[in-house]
Amino acid sequence: MISTGDLKKGLAIEFEGQPCNIIEWQHVKIGRGGAIVRMKLRNLRSGAIFERTCDAGDKFKRLYLDHSNVTYQYQDGDHYHFMDMNTYDDIILTEAQLGDAKNYLIDNLELGIVRYNDEPISVELPEKLVLRVTYTEPGFKGDTATGGNKPATTETGLVVQVPLFIATDDLIRVNTSTGAYVERA
């Protein structure tokens, strides 16, 4: 059991009987009353994000999650199929479990999967990923890196703001945590 003083961003805890990940937390001291903790949590099973307030002395069960390597195989409706690289098992996650990670899935992408009690609950993407631009407005002579940005659609459907010199079929490196353009690959 851990107390509210030990909470930090990214920590997995059991909250109201569900495995949750702490997205944000803030310790607030109220005038004459005791301190409270405001938390923004993500349910690891459903992907739902919610906010809760609790007393500063509350205790939570810390969760220990298993991590393994998988390869993205294909999408079947709202289900995404991955292959465990050690056991070759087929692992299925829903669109809700993936959240924004679905915008970065390309065939045969190697990534991590997070399990709780042997149940797959989410994926861990690489920090940066190379994607092909499938559509963007054409650039013109004189377009430079500091001349502004334009939207570009990638092979996964993700729309990224890119410099004006990027053209269709270019490979770009994208930060998976922010969704921002990093560099031309």
UniProtKB/TrEMBL annotation:
Transmembrane segments: none annotated. Pathway: Protein biosynthesis; polypeptide chain elongation. It is found in: Cytoplasm. SUPFAM superfamilies: Nucleic acid-binding proteins (SSF50249), Translation proteins SH3-like domain (SSF50104). Residues 129-184 form the Elongation factor P C-terminal domain. Its main location: cytoplasm. Residues 67-121 form the Translation elongation factor P/YeiP central domain. Signal peptide: none annotated. Gene3D superfamilies: 2.30.30.30, Nucleic acid-binding proteins. Pfam families: EFP, EFP_N, Elong-fact-P_C. One of its GO terms (cellular component) is cytosol. InterPro entries: Elong-fact-P_C, NA-bd_OB-fold, Rib_uL2_dom2, Transl_elong_fac_P/YeiP, Transl_elong_KOW-like, Transl_elong_P/YeiP_cen, Transl_elong_P/YeiP_CS, Transl_elongation_fac_P. Keywords: Cytoplasm, Elongation factor, Protein biosynthesis. GO terms for molecular function: translation elongation factor activity. PANTHER family: ELONGATION FACTOR P, ELONGATION FACTOR P (EF-P) FAMILY PROTEIN. Belongs to the elongation factor P family. This is Elongation factor P. It comes from Reticulibacter mediterranei.
